[in-house]
Amino acid sequence: MSRSGASLRSAALIAPLFLFLAVFFFWPLWTVISVSVRDGAIVSALPRTVAVIGDWDGTGVPDAEIQGALVADLADAESTALGPAVRRLNSEVSGFRTLIPKTATAAREAAGGTPPDLATLDPRWADTRYWTAIASGASAYTDRNLLAAVDLARDAGGAVTRLPPESSANRLIIGRTFLISGIITVCCLAIGLPYAMLLAATSGWKRNVLLMSVLLPLWTSLLVRTAAWFILLQDQGLINRTLIDLGLTTRPVPLIFNRTGVVIAMTHVLLPFMVLPIYSVINSIPKTLMPAAASMGASPMRAFLRILLPLAMPGILSGSLLVFMVAIGYYITPALVGGPNDQMISSIIAFYSLQTANWGMAGALGLILLVVTTVLYLVYGRLSRSAAPLGA
How far lies 159's CA from each of 55, 81, 327, in Å? Predict the structure, then answer.
């Protein structure tokens, strides 16, 4: 077979892989990025207005040409095209939800005759703020959603300013997401490191039982695991009933609809992602190192800190990054077990996507999550490819 034929055959073999990556990886990523910076609602609904409003200096009320272009656009616009534009404009200045339909009705009734005077039709058209909102959406691309995702916005002069605390809490929710994910990572490490050491120290059926206990949650649906914790953590659940029966408490301990429940449930769900990387590293460490350190006078704690812990550090860092990376994108568990002050960034993305249909904000928040996850993934990949353990 010729070289060109072999190359074509190789390309045909890997073509399904590239097709899969393009459809299920690169296309969704490009969609998230484009929807977060694209703002074509006003451009599509008001093309004539967008074409001429760029000459307006932003003071007072636009001239008759711009007002006539707006009337013409509203007279020809379909209601399906006006809907996204109205939502976009109303998010900047309240009142467009009633102003645009009223003006569009008047423009259609006057079609072919004398166009209505906008200020006479509704005094709001004499307010510069409404025209500024239209002018701000004249470009098909904007950084409005990206700024709003971190509680920032542009003022009338174009400078970036911080939104009032009552306007948005995205920055607070992003910080809360990182905090909860960090707490869960620490909890998984506190449980996973001793468990991985015990797993590596055993053999035979005991190791199989311990491995089965770690892998079993991965074989169970996430929704089923979360529902199980929802039942266990209730005031009349098994945990509170056991505590009361043992006399450790006289009343139920609040374990659900708060951060405690979120940490408990997510720690259980993500624990395998911490145990398995640490176990794979510890299991490759020669078993003679710790006895050798003891024979030279090192105490068990000193031998652990000076020998085992540095050698296990690649697994610890990889497991910690993996748990944190997965935790920041969790939605089901905080939504079912957590309270209003425990919702994470994924819940806000779902809110913008499903309830308000604000795809731009959902894409911008998703882009922030994507950037953080990508950076952590690169760090994780770097640690995974590292051959020499830290401290060795």
Answer: 20, 30, 35
Instruction: Spell out the alpha helix ranges (H) of 202-237.
Output: 204-215, 222-232
- d(CA 218, CA 222) in angstroms, rounded, equals 8
Query: Residue 85 in contact with residue 44, Cβ under 8 Å?
Result: yes
Q: Is residue 290 part of a domain?
A: yes
Let me know whether 88 and 129 are in one domain: yes
Instruction: Quote the pLDDT of residue 385.
Output: 67
pLDDT band per the 50, 70, 90 thresholds, residue 389: very low
Domain around 252: 170-385
Cα-Cα-Cα-Cα dihedral sign, residues 190, 196, 201, 207? positive
With bands split at pLDDT 50, 70 and 90, how would you rate the model's confidence at 388?
very low
The secondary structure of residue 237, as a DSSP letter, is: S
Residue 1 reports pLDDT greater than 80: no
Q: Which has the higher per-residue pLDDT, 84 or 158?
A: 84
Q: Dump strand ranges (E) for the chain.
A: 152-154, 160-162
Q: At what angle do helices 96-109 and 79-92 cross, to 10 degrees?
A: 140
Rounded distance, CA 331 to CA 345, Å?
8
Residues 6+ apart with CB under 8 A from 161: 152, 153, 154, 155
3-state secondary structure of 363: helix
CA distance 265 to 233: 9
| 214 and 286 within one domain | yes
Residues 28 and 63 in one domain: no
**Model pTM above 0.85:** no
3 state SS of 29:
helix
**Three-state SS sequence of 190-208:** HHHHHHHHHHHHCCHHHHH
What average pLDDT does the structure give for the chain? 85
What is the per-residue pLDDT for 2?
61
Summarize the confidence of residues 179-184 as an average pLDDT: 95
